[in-house]
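Researcher: Structure for this, please.
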Amino acid sequence: MYPYSCDTFVALPPSTERQRIIFGKNSDRPCDEVQEVVYFPARNYGAGEKVECTYIEIEQVAHTYAVVLSKPAWLWGAEMGANEHQVCIGNEAVWGRESADDDEALLGMDLVRIGLERADTAEKAVDVITELLEKYGQGGSCMEDECSFTYHNSFLISDRKEAWLLETSGKHWAAERVEGGYRNISNQYGITTKMDKEHPKMRDYARSQGWWDGETQFNFATVYSFTTTARIEASGSRYCEGKKLLEKSNGHITAETMMDILRDKDSGINMEGMFMTTGSMVSVIPTDPALPGVHYFTATPDPERSVFKPFVFVKNINELKETSSPSYGPDDPVKKKPRFQSKPDRKHELFVKHELVAAITESYKDRGKKITESMRQLEKEKMTQMEEILSHGIEEPDFLANLFSSSVREEMAVYGKS
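Model: Predicted structure, token format:
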């Protein structure tokens, strides 16, 4: 299985406009997989409580933060998301010298969710993820299928003031702080000689494996990557294209810029085929802590044919029903061993309607064009409304409690007219 998945981007001042951090990610996954967008409020837990992740159980903490997640519907973790403190995280598959065929442990997607639930800054998220990685390891199939699809992970993590790139190989890892400009990642190791945090035994391990002589300058990407690059060629070209697209708007990067990048098909960033872009996210985080962040999610495949809908953290947010997949509890085939003996229907309400409209768009070009125009118009209206909030703050929080759900219903109304 070749690494055909995911691109994550972050842009910080001075590459952005209006003192904002812009985060974006396409989640590229098997084309038949449903991605849901879900919200979990902050919670307190008693001593000794456990949390059941995708494959294993770990100890719970006393308090978890409110999170909004875009996640493959079959697993516990998330591909990307944000928390109430405006920390955003996206992960990527990476393959290197270390085998990824480990026993079931924490998935990279589990670590994304845990990082968001437990960290109120990007740097703390790095600490949370690496501590659990060292304790439990990473492993298990990353696809809802009997054929095992495994990988190690890199993470791009941002908050109101900076971003961190965290790259892992087994239980070893390196992290780099990004304090300005822009950064993108695409399924390949990108940390070289600048490491602001690292696993204390990561260099010794590389030397013991004969990957590093202990004398030349240590370069994480060179030491831990495959000796042959054929396997990461596709991600390498996407990485270069993504970097070029960011460079083109350097100094003026906005949410719209990021959405355009995620919709770009020529670069391969908006992926089609057996692996495709099944969900997308763009977040706008003002550096001013008095102003709210706005998080846009599609909850549907192909951002070119989807609406980025806004979510803002306020009190009293209800369950995001229209983008939540059916739950099968302990009867879920993922929970039973041997796993993945069958695949239940995981389509949520928006997914079903979007799938139908995508078929119409494909078959009837003129109708498809009108539908797409109506969708973009809705998106533009929502972004104009959010600009007011991003610039001046929230006056009536209760009006935003159902912001995402009402935007989804408006999107479905557009589909209904078609």
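Researcher: Any notable elements?
Model: The chain has one domain: 7-417. The chain has a mean pLDDT of 94.
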